Amino acid sequence: MKCLALHSGGLDSTLAIRLIQEQGIEVEGIRFFSVFDAGLSSEEVCAREERVAARLGIRCRMIPFSEDLLALVKNPLHGHGSHLNPCIDCHARMFRRASELMLQAGASFLITGEVLGERPMSQRREALGIVERDAGVGGLLLRPLSARLLPPTIPETKGWVDRERLLGLSGRNRRPQFELARRLGVTEYPPPAGGCLLTDPGFSARLAELLRHNPGCSVDDVWLLKAGRHFRLAPEVKAVVGRNEQENVFLERQALPGDVLIEAEGVPGPLTLLQGPAAESHLETMARITLRYGKAGARPSAPVCLRTVGGVARRIEAAPAEPGVIEALRIAPPEGGGSSRGD
Ligand code: SF4
């Protein structure tokens, strides 16, 4: 007997896997990853997941999910949670994809680490039912941590899984999970914070601003929201200023033909990426802001290089921007790096 586990890398899904493994059932994991995971590259997420899967002794398939999730953020059937997180639609889409993969993997049912009532949007009793209906997985989706509080599923009624050895957890108190982790010898798991960026208020504010100006924005546009200080110069003109070397490298990698890269010449400082149909005044303003954030910030003026990707480079002399200019153009910065707990 084999099941497919939707694995988020967190404690709940890890415990659900361990509970099912205890019943002698083979588990294969699937992890949906997207631009909305914390971190500046998907490789980070995949490497983290590989380590977790190795500890659990399971194989885990990584499934790209950025396009799906961005489409749901733009147009959620069941609305957003407390920020821009469309958790009900997101779960339904993941479970539908998982049920297709279940057949390919030769598995008989699906499991998740969901806990009834733990999260305000997607884990209400009513929402669990909506997700099952929308995903078309009724009866084959088992939630081992809350199973005893939910109607019996096919794996339970057919005797593939012993319902008596499953749990009846509910609510937001996570002490039972920590105790279970101790009993099962699960010692390494990420803290509850640090999940999906769509639950982070600062990131959601940036994304909302992007969607207002560019409702058709792409996954690449969203990647850019994860780094730097952001400035809106005109409805279609935007710039991002790196905050450290890692972000400077990231911004250079994200630049597309026609974008402009701006940096001070001969003085350490940030790299700025400017996108959109920029006027000369926009280029000058961003040259000045770039200087303000670098070592040239205290000088009356300094040379700045403006390099069009796939085009020409030129130099201008500029004075560092006054704080008022920065304040007027800056888009709200994110508060931290991804909060939270799901909804
Ligand atoms: S918190 Fe989870 S369910 Fe909600 S949108 Fe993010 S990835 Fe999807």
| CATH homologous superfamily grouping of the largest domain | HUPs
Strand-residue proportion: 15-25%
From the N-terminal CA to the C-terminal CA, the straight-line distance is: 33 Å
What is bound: which ligands? iron/sulfur cluster
Count of discrete alpha- or pi-helical segments spanning 4 or more residues:
12
Whole-number tally of structural domains: 2
CATH topology of the largest domain: Rossmann fold
What CATH architecture of the largest domain do you see? 3-Layer(aba) Sandwich
Question: Tags for this entry?
Answer:
12 helices; 6-stranded antiparallel β-sheet; alpha/beta; 5-stranded parallel β-sheet; Rossmann fold; binds iron/sulfur cluster; 343 residues; elongated; 2 domains
Describe this structure in words.
With 343 residues, the chain is α/β, with parallel strands linked by helices. The protein folds into two domains: 2-192, HUPs (Rossmann fold, 3-Layer(aba) Sandwich); 200-329, no CATH class. Helix content is 37%, strand content 16%. It has twelve helices and eleven strands. It has helices at 11-21, 42-56, 66-74, 87-105, 125-135, 154-157, 175-184, 201-213, 219-224, 245-254, 280-292, 323-329; strands spanning 2-6, 26-33, 60-64, 109-111, 141-142, 229-234, 237-241, 260-264, 272-275, 302-308, 313-318. A six-stranded antiparallel beta sheet has the order 6-7-9-8-10-11. A five-stranded parallel beta sheet has the order 3-2-1-4-5, with helices on both faces. Helix 4 crosses helix 5 (125-135). The radius of gyration is 24 Å and the shape is elongated. Residues 336-343 have low confidence and may be disordered. The protein binds iron/sulfur cluster. The site of iron/sulfur cluster (SF4) has 10 residues, from helix 4.
